[in-house]
Each structure stands twice: as C-alpha cells, then as structure tokens.
Amino acid sequence: MNPKTVSAGGVMTGGVTGSSVLVTGGAGYIGSHAVKALADAGYDVCVFDNLSAGHREAVSRIANRYPDRRVTLVVGDVGDRAAVARALTESQAQAVMHFAARLSVGESVREPAKYYETNVTGTLAVLAAMADVGVHRFVFSSTAATFGEPVAIPIDEDHPQVPINPYGETKLAVERALGHLGAATPMRAVIFRYFNAAGADPDGLLGEDHSPEEHLIPRAIAAVMTGKPLQIFGTDYPTPDGTCVRDFVHVSDLASAHLAGLTSLEAGGASAAYNLGMGDGVSVRELVASVARVTGRDVPHVVGPRRPGDPSSLVATSARVRAALAWEPQYGDLDTIVRTAWVWHQSHPKGYGTTE
Predict the structure, then answer these.
(1) Residue numbers annotated as active site
(2) Which CB contacts under 8 angstroms, 24+ apart, belong to 82-85?
(3) What is the distance between the alpha carbons of residues 257 and 265, in angstroms, rounded to a whole number?
(4) What is the CATH number of the domain that holds 158?
(5) Which has the least CB within 10 A, 114, 150, 180, 318?
(6) pLDDT per position as a tens digit, 314-332
(7) pLDDT recorded at residue 322
(8) Would 343 be classed as within a structural domain?
(9) Does residue 278 fall inside a structural domain?
(10) Domain count, the chain
C-alpha cells in the first residue's frame, strides 16, 4: 500500500476512519517520525509537503506499516493558503502539526530572505488557512535557536529569547504571532523548542536523509563510512574542551512530545511553550567519541573556524514539559541515540534512495 498522492490542487478520495491531523513537512526528518507516532496512536494523517527536503518514500513506508490508517500525501507549498485550506477540508483534519521550514543556521545567515519567506510568511499562510476552515489546534516546531547565547544553563522556558541568527529570529517571530493570534482568535497552540534532534526510528523504518547534511551525528557517521573527514567548526569556544556544547534528544522522543501536545489541545488545554531536551550537555568532541565507540572506528576529522551564528552552549531543562504533559524520553543515553542513527545509515547508505 502506498499513500494516495495528489497535487496541491487535486482532490483526495476515500473515507476518514478516525481523527485526522494535517502534518506540514511530514515527509521530512522530524515530521515523518511524528506522522509515524500519529498513525501508531490511531490517527489518520494528511502529509502536506513540497518534497524539497522531504521524501515520498518516508510517507510510503508509514502507509505500508499502518494499512488500517489513512495516510495521504499532498504535494504542495505551505505558502499556498488556498491549497492548505483544501487539504484541511478534504482530509477533515482537526489539528495541524507544523514542521515545514528551512532549518540551517549557516544558510539563514547567508540567505535570510529565504528564511523569512518560508518560516514566517509560509507559516502565516498555514495559520490563515486554518482560520478559513475553522481549525484551531496548532502544534508548532520551534527551536532553541530562539534563545541565542544563553545567560544561564540549563535553559528554561523563561530564559530571554535573543536570537543571534536569522533562523532563530524567524521561529521567534512565529512564536510571537501565535501569542497575538491566541489573544484575538480561538487559535490554541503548543510550541516545542527543540534542542538537537538526533537518531533514527528504532524500528528502522525512518531516518535522517538531508542534502546537504548539516547535522553533526550523520556527518560524523558519514566520515566513518566514507573516510572523508568531518569538519569541526571552532575549538575556541568558552566550553570545557573548546567545542560547542549541545543537548541531543532522540527524534522519536520529539515525536512523542508532539503527540502529547496534541492530546493536551484536544482535551481543552491552554496554549503553552515547552523546551525539548535531555538536560545533558555534550560537546562536539564528546559526540565524536561516542560515534567512535558505537561504530568501533575512528572518526576522521579536521578543525575549521567557527561557523557564524552558532552559540557556544545550548542545554535545556525539560522539567516543565515533563510535568505538564507527562513526557518521558525513552532514549536518553547518547550512545543509544547514536546507535539508532548508525543502524539506519548502515542499512540505508543512500538514504531513501531518491532525491525527492
């Protein structure tokens, strides 16, 4: 079974068998894991994705795994308000999970206009389409980049938000817009500020496949597999070993948090913003050591200059989301997170085997 695929202007057919959710960017890395979590929980899912960074094959795999759910792929752009409204109406979605975005810090510094167009204008188009058809539940994929350089570690939800790159600025702009919309309309939103998404589906169904790849774990694994050295960006940060410190959280745990956020909204819960991290800071050098342990191979690497827009340290406290949504991460150990990624990349050396 493959998902029924239509263009943004097409018509979806077939009955909806249960509660339905529209997932923008649902063919991408984090979005596809959320789609799998939704299908596993009994939801029908309409994936809305332009496939510029997502993969049709990821949606097909979920549809094949859950033949009793209706998993549909609509190929379209989030900036097309009318197309989003049609997808919402035809899928009978009662909520939206919004993952569609540009997400490279470095690229955002070089080409900020693209980030404002997709991450701000595109998201506002989705929110307008939701208002057009009367859908008022929104789960938003934000980022720790909204905090900028931390003034306290670990970072809680009340930490000042002072982004130092356009990527973080665009996500913060949407967070602020959601606050205003919540005051003026029936819209209710749960915002999740990710720290560093990592790993792959433990079932082996889904994984990380970006082109170009900018995330550290798959880049380190690629260095092991190809012998092409990993570039470490900066070793002069004010951290214990001079490299950036990050908080890695498994992608399946991110997906389970989104499901919990949706459940809260369905139960009448109020809008809220939560940090999603493990609370453990891991330096780039420590991550490289973990990849070496898991793979049993050295990670060839070279040292380069700092990358513009990179804070020295981003580590979360997730106490609020654990208390409010009973979120309990299942993959807290760094080597376990790396191992799921290693298994995926070994069995999928060419990713999903498609450029879509």
Answers:
(1) 167
(2) 82/129, 83/8, 83/9, 83/48, 84/22, 84/24, 84/48, 84/125, 84/126, 84/129, 84/130, 85/129, 85/132, 85/133
(3) 13
(4) 3.40.50.720
(5) 180
(6) 899 999 999 999 999 999 8
(7) 97
(8) yes
(9) yes
(10) 1
